Amino acid sequence: MYNIVSAIFLAENIKKIEIQAPRIAKKRKAGQFVMIRAGEHGERIPLTIAGSDPEKGTITIIVQGMGKSTRELNLKETGDTIHDIVGPLGTPSHIEKFGTAVSIGGGVGTAIAYPTAVALKEAGNYVITINGARTRDLVILEDEMKAVSDEAYITTDDGSYGFHGFVTQKLQELIDSGKPIDYVLAIGPIPMMKAVAEVTRPYGIPTVVSLNPVMVDGTGMCGGCRVTVDNETRFACVDGPEFDAHKVDFKNLSDRNRMYLPEEKQSVEAFSH
Ligand code: FES
């Protein structure tokens, strides 16, 4: 059992949960994730570690209530427990001094982009962050992103806060301004990551995305997280979750992620009643 040290909503349906997990807190690196089971009979869900405090022995995850299991997890309060956590899993983000690095987070993807932005900053990069959301109320980690950025931008689809438009438009604006960009990391919904890849492709800017396929064990055994990268099958849980955005087959990823939609809908409906 793992104790929840604090659980607070950052935005509607998006909860930040700090959990006592000292061994994971000590070992984890940016880009890695944990597999969590909220209760004894729960489903295993992969969640990127948004941060850790090795002194306190805690890790932080940020959960958006989408399906039954994430909604169940979002019902947890400070003082509750999590049944089991396995991790840290996955290959850590590739961090080096690239020069100017742009870290883009779309929606709850910002929670995943954040730890990598921290690591990029620590490695001596000039860090630009673009934090996108549909609307102002859904912007998360604004202060945290600002604190690790040399330049920080917020974009909202409806223009209610920051730049009015998509993260890709802001990125294009930065490229057009003549700013030399050496590395881009984009994490968010599949269409957003695909669109970022298309913006940077003509300029040959190295671009990395963090993929979110269905995962079961998270250790390379079930094959559920198969993705196609550079025409080869890779397992996101061990070979990723970060891959070269210009080589990812995004269509295959979104088709596979839609395979269980009817079952997911059924289970959410049963949970809500
Ligand atoms: Fe099973 Fe990756 S989640 S192989």
Bin the strand percentage.
Answer: 25-35%
Strand segment count: 16
Q: What small ligands are held by the chains? A: FE2/S2 (inorganic) cluster
- Indicate the multimeric state: single chain
Q: Give, in spatial order, the strands making up the sheet with the most strands.
A: 6-1-2-5-4-3-7
Give the overall silhouette: globular
* CATH superfamily placement of the largest domain: Nucleotide-binding domain of ferredoxin-NADP reductase (FNR) module
Q: Report, as a whole number of angstroms, the end-to-end distance.
A: 28 Å
Global structural class: alpha/beta
Task: Tell me the radius of gyration.
Answer: 18 Å
In DSSP terms (H or I, runs of 4 or more residues), the helix count works out at: 9
Series of H and E elements: EEHEEEHEEEHEHEEHEHEEEHEHH
- Please name the CATH topology of the largest domain: Rossmann fold
Mean pLDDT: 90
Number of domains: 2
CATH class of the largest domain: Alpha Beta
**Which architecture name of the largest domain does CATH use?**
3-Layer(aba) Sandwich
Mind describing the biggest β-sheet?
7 strands, antiparallel
Into which percent range does the helicity of residues fall? 25-40%
Low-confidence stretches: none
3D architecture notes:
The protein is α/β, with parallel strands linked by helices and 273 residues long. The chain has 2 domains: 2-89, Elongation Factor Tu (Ef-tu), domain 3, CATH 2.40.30; 100-257, 3-Layer(aba) Sandwich (Rossmann fold), CATH 3.40.50.80. The protein is built from 9 helices and 16 strands. The strands form 3 sheets. The protein has a 7-stranded antiparallel β-sheet with strand order 6-1-2-5-4-3-7, sandwiched between helices. Strands 11-10-9-8-12-13-16 form a 7-stranded mixed β-sheet, sandwiched between helices. The protein has a two-stranded antiparallel sheet with strand order 14-15. It is globular, with a radius of gyration of 18 Å. The relative contact order is 0.13. Residues 215-218, 220-225, 235, 237 line the site of FE2/S2 (inorganic) cluster. The site of FE2/S2 (inorganic) cluster (FES) has 12 residues, from loops.
